[in-house]
Write a structure and sequence with these properties.
Distance between the termini: 46 Å
Helix content: 25-40%
Order of helices and strands: HHHEEEHEHEHEHEHEHEEEH
Bound molecules: iron/sulfur cluster
Number of domains: 1
CATH class: Alpha Beta
Radius of gyration: 19 Å
Structural class: alpha/beta
CATH architecture: Alpha-Beta Barrel
Largest sheet: 9 strands, parallel
CATH superfamily: Aldolase class I
CATH topology: TIM Barrel
Shape: globular
Strand content: 5-15%
Number of helices: 10
Length: about 350
């Protein structure tokens, strides 16, 4: 092995490390770096330094509460909450008492946001009611994670107390889901236009996704000004139709997290990864999602009793890696990042 870094990679890292962003071609070169190479550690060091500097050592925990379980008729291939998966035969809506307990516990344990997730056909009115209830009870910022919305519904989210919305164009959108990519992008424009923070992740990554497809979604996040946009891998729940593809490792995810950090440049206020793990905290990530309630990755109705990690466990991993979860969040103290797409 050479002791010197490839000069081409070094030039990309110098440029990316200056927060000026990199090109699609450069991102694809980085995405295919050998995981045992010196270049991969130089890439991760660059991404890590950028996040330490920009986020001032703050690590974040945005607490996911999946407020309902359903045999969802949309049947996205990667999701355990589908009619087709046959895991959940009946709809369950968690009680207001459960939701309030989760939210107040998260608030007292230092959550930086509450991400309120619904399945694809859940009542929008009920989501608004949960928002109003939580707004009265906790001071933690509220982020909605629901179906495509129109402008008026974006304003209704704000009136109900939400300050952000998580919405991703998924890998394989239109192929592994029944949804139209352009419609999902229109929802992102709605989120931005009404003044909500747009939260995103390149997801759910599996070994079958090509660098072109992954790169495309990283650039969508930068161009539309995501508040954060890291990388989440696909988890194959028991019986998943995607099981034949396998899953990527945390190490492979850390490489993507680092590339995505260079792509995002000076746009984001944090950089996420899921599920929580240490490797990506050395590669530019500083944001985890502790979880309770429904999860598209779990066969348990309440992922808090399954795969979901508690806030304290997430904080522990972050502190072991030298991040400070006790500082104030960087995500909500300014207006949503400027959109570059117009
Ligand atoms: S990802 Fe959402 S819309 Fe798709 S099947 Fe799961 S719950 Fe339904």
């Amino acid at each position: 092995m050479s002791w010197r870094l490839s000069s081409a990679v070094e030039a990309i890292l110098d440029k990316g490390g200056d927060f000026t962003g990199i090109t699609r071609e450069e991102a694809m070169i980085l995405l295919t770096l050998d995981l045992d190479s010196r270049e991969i550690y130089a890439l991760m060091e660059t991404a890590h330094r950028m996040s330490r500097q920009k986020f001032e050592n703050k690590s974040e925990n945005h607490f996911h509460i999946g407020i309902n379980v359903a045999p969802c008729p949309y049947n996205c291939s990667f999701c355990s909450l589908t009619a087709k998966a046959g895991i959940f035969m009946h709809a369950i809506e968690f009680s207001e008492a459960d939701i309030l307990k989760w939210a107040t516990d998260a608030d007292s344990q230092g959550a930086d946001a509450l991400n309120i997730m619904t399945t694809g056909t859940f009542s929008f009115e009920r989501l608004l009611a949960v928002g109003r209830l939580l707004k009265k009870t906790v001071s933690t910022p509220l982020v909605a994670n629901t179906r495509d919305i129109i402008h008026k519904e974006g304003e209704m989210l704000i009136d109900a107390g939400f300050v952000g919305a998580y919405h991703a164009v998924r890998l394989g959108e239109g192929r592994d889901t029944p949804f139209d990519r352009e419609k999902r992008i229109r929802t992102i424009s709605v989120i931005k236009d009404v003044g909500l923070h747009w939260m995103n992740c390149v997801e759910p990554v599996g070994p079958e996704h090509r660098p072109e497809e992954i790169t495309d979604l990283m650039f969508l996040a930068r161009d539309y000004g995501a508040t954060y946009s890291g990388v989440m891998r696909r988890i194959n729940f028991p019986g998943s139709p995607m099981a034949g593809h396998g899953m990527i490792t945390e190490r492979e995810m850390a490489r993507m997290v680092a590339v995505s950090r260079l792509v995002m440049g000076d746009v984001p206020r944090a950089h996420c990864t899921h599920e929580p793990h240490a490797a990506s905290l050395l590669a530019g990530a500083n944001l985890f999602f502790p979880e309770v309630g429904a999860s598209p990755r779990d066969g348990e109705a309440d992922t808090g009793k399954g795969r979901g990690k508690e806030i304290n466990a997430c904080r522990g991993i972050q502190m072991e890696m030298g991040w400070n979860p006790d500082l104030p969040s960087n995500c909500f103290d300014v207006k949503p990042p400027v959109t570059h797409y117009q």
